[in-house]
Design brief:
This is Transposase IS200-like domain-containing protein. The chain is built from four helices and six strands. The chain is α+β, with helices and mostly antiparallel strands and 211 residues long.
C-alpha cells in the first residue's frame, strides 16, 4: 500500500480538463472525529504533523482507490480532528440493455465512507494490540465489491501517548454521520480544492477547531 507523502500527494493541477460536471461523480466529503477530538496530530506553523493514528487515516484514504477500481481520489487533507477530501466515482455509462447499470450499493459515497471508517478502526485496533499480534495481516473482505472492500495494512509500533488515546476512545474514532457535497462545476471544484490545500494555514479560524 502506498504511504501518504504530503509533498507528493498535493502536487497536482486543480483543473479537470474536459470533465463533465453534469454526471454528478465528484463529491466533497468531510469526516469528523467523535466529539471533535484531536486524534490525528497537530498543526504547527501552518503544517499538519500526523501522529500514528493520523498516518493510518491518511494511508487508508489513499488505499481506497487501490481496492476500488471505480474510485479516483483528488485533493485531501487529514486535519487534527477531521478529514476533507474530493472523491470521484467512475460510474458505468447508462445502457438500455443493463438495468441499474449506473449505480450499485458498493459504488455509493456512503459505502465508500463506511468501508474507510471500518478500515481505519481495524488498523487502530491492531496498532494498540501490536504487542499481542505482530502479524498484521488480517483477512481481506469476502465481498470483492462490497463496502468492506479494504485490506488493512500491517500496523506500526504505537507510541505511549497514542496507546492512551486509543484506550480512552474505546475505538469510537468517528462521528456517525459525515458531510457530502456534489461538485457541479469547475469553479466549485477549484474553490474546494484550494480550501482543502489551505486548510492547515486557516486552522485557527476553522469552525472544527475546538482548542
Amino acid at each position: 500500500m502506498e504511504q501518504y507523502n504530503p509533498h507528493k500527494h498535493h502536487r497536482r493541477s486543480i483543473r479537470l480538463a474536459g470533465y463533465d460536471y453534469s454526471q454528478a461523480g465528484l463529491y466533497f466529503v468531510t469526516l469528523v472525529c467523535q466529539d471533535r477530538a484531536h486524534l490525528f496530530g497537530a498543526i504547527k506553523d501552518g503544517i499538519m504533523h500526523l501522529n500514528d493514528i493520523g498516518q493510518i487515516a491518511a494511508d487508508e484514504w489513499l488505499h481506497t482507490q487501490e481496492v476500488r477500481d471505480n474510485v479516483v481520489l483528488h485533493e485531501f487533507i487529514v486535519m487534527p480532528n477531521h478529514i476533507h477530501g474530493i472523491i470521484e466515482i467512475l460510474y458505468p455509462k447508462e445502457s438500455s440493455n443493463i438495468v441499474g447499470a449506473l449505480k450499485s450499493p458498493s459504488q455509493t459515497i456512503g459505502a465508500i465512507v463506511r468501508g474507510y471508517k471500518i478500515a481505519t478502526i481495524k488498523r487502530i485496533k491492531e496498532l494498540e494490540s501490536k504487542g499481542e499480534d505482530s502479524k498484521g495481516e488480517d483477512s481481506k473482505s469476502e465481498d470483492s465489491k462490497g463496502e468492506l472492500q479494504f485490506a488493512p495494512t500491517a500496523p506500526t509500533a504505537p507510541t505511549d501517548p497514542t496507546r492512551e488515546i486509543i484506550k480512552s476512545l474505546a475505538y469510537k474514532i468517528w462521528q456517525r454521520n459525515y458531510y457530502e457535497h456534489i461538485i457541479r462545476d469547475e469553479k466549485a471544484y477549484i474553490n474546494i480544492s484550494n480550501y482543502i490545500i489551505e486548510n492547515p494555514l486557516n486552522w485557527e479560524e476553522d469552525q472544527l477547531n475546538t482548542l
